[in-house]
Design brief:
The chain is an alpha/beta fold. Helices cover 38% and strands 17% of the residues. A five-stranded mixed sheet has the order 3-2-1-4-8. Helix 12 links the parallel strand 10 and strand 11. The two termini are 20 Å apart.
């Protein structure tokens, strides 16, 4: 065990939903508006699809991040029954929304992410993962937390003014306004940034619990703003961005390029593109640490089988 992991505990938090669950689907149908159901960035079925990625995610944390103290799996009255050598705890939405039960059920990641810091027993330093992630090779705690209270992000600074101008241009031509970049900019502005935001890539996110607790305790109206809508809306902002802007002001954010460490596969790519993408992980000298497989419910059986084979080969003991 290295020096960082001896100094403080680090937990992993994973959010998971089984979109094949008829109970959950009936619950969602009771609240959704037809216009929301048609919008791919709000409540399209692929946002809740499950193709077993959670098993790769947890297994990869066990294999390549053995220094993690505990895994918290956050769900809405569901359980994937995944095995883990690292202690794993299922946390229901009702636990983290205690005192705010009127906003349940929720079907929005922004709402859920705003409450993760409230997980009972969560360590001060934790790493948030989506369930479609897989760790590809051994990583150290320093890759997330160079020192106590500091975070290392595979991301870059972007201009609030010019990015907002670009997205305003896109919105004029009908692009959806409820997207992750806009939510980053919303958060940066709320956190007091006047010129920049941290443009986050789809990677694991190291977070400092007390930073979020302090922000939401001082601004309870912002917590309500982020959890009162059950589906994505223009009012939402990214909680991780809030943490990073607060830490940026204190000189505690360290930025690195995302390209060398992240491999992403999109469902619209064919087999040839898939093989090229997977080779980024397996080729000699590769530095890719994280793989993300987006919308596997939309790929062909052949491609899904190839991805399963890749994952099993990588994760075998």
């Amino acid at each position: 065990m290295n020096e960082t992991s001896k100094k403080f505990d680090i937990d992993v938090v994973i959010t998971w939903v089984d979109g094949n669950d008829p109970v959950l689907n009936a619950k969602r149908a009771a609240y959704i508006h037809p216009d929301q159901a048609r919008e791919k960035d709000i409540a399209a079925p692929n946002r809740y699809a499950n193709k077993g990625e959670i098993y790769w995610c947890v297994r990869s944390v066990n294999k390549f991040m053995p220094w993690v103290r505990r895994i918290f799996l956050v769900t809405d009255n569901q359980n994937p029954h995944v095995e883990s050598k690292i202690p794993l705890e299922i946390v229901d939405h009702s636990v983290i929304f205690q005192g705010y039960e009127q906003f349940l059920p929720t079907f929005c990641t922004s709402s859920i992410e705003a409450m993760l810091w409230r997980i009972p027993g969560l360590s001060e330093h934790y790493i948030y993962l989506n369930d479609d992630f897989m760790v590809c090779r051994p990583v150290t705690p320093e890759m997330f937390f160079p020192q106590p209270g500091h975070v290392l992000l595979h991301a870059r600074k972007s201009s609030l003014f010019w990015t907002q101008a670009w997205y305003s241009f896109k919105y004029f031509f009908g692009s959806c306004r409820v997207n992750h970049i806009q939510r980053m900019m919303n958060a940066a502005t709320i956190a007091g940034s006047k010129s920049i935001f941290i443009r986050l890539a789809h990677t694991p996110y190291p977070l400092v619990r007390s930073t979020l607790e302090q922000f939401y305790t001082q601004h309870p109206e912002r917590l309500v703003q982020n959890i009162q809508n059950r589906f994505r809306s223009l009012q939402h902002f990214r909680t991780d961005e809030i943490c990073y802007i607060q830490l940026w002001k204190e000189g505690k954010v360290h930025l690195r390029s995302v390209r060398p460490v992240l491999m992403r596969y999109y469902s619209k790519k064919g087999m040839m593109q898939l093989e090229w993408t997977l080779r980024r992980v397996t080729k000699p000298g590769s530095k890719v640490c994280f793989a993300c497989f987006y919308a596997l419910d939309q790929v062909s059986d052949e491609i899904h089988e190839r991805i399963c084979q890749f994952a099993e080969d990588l994760l075998k003991e």
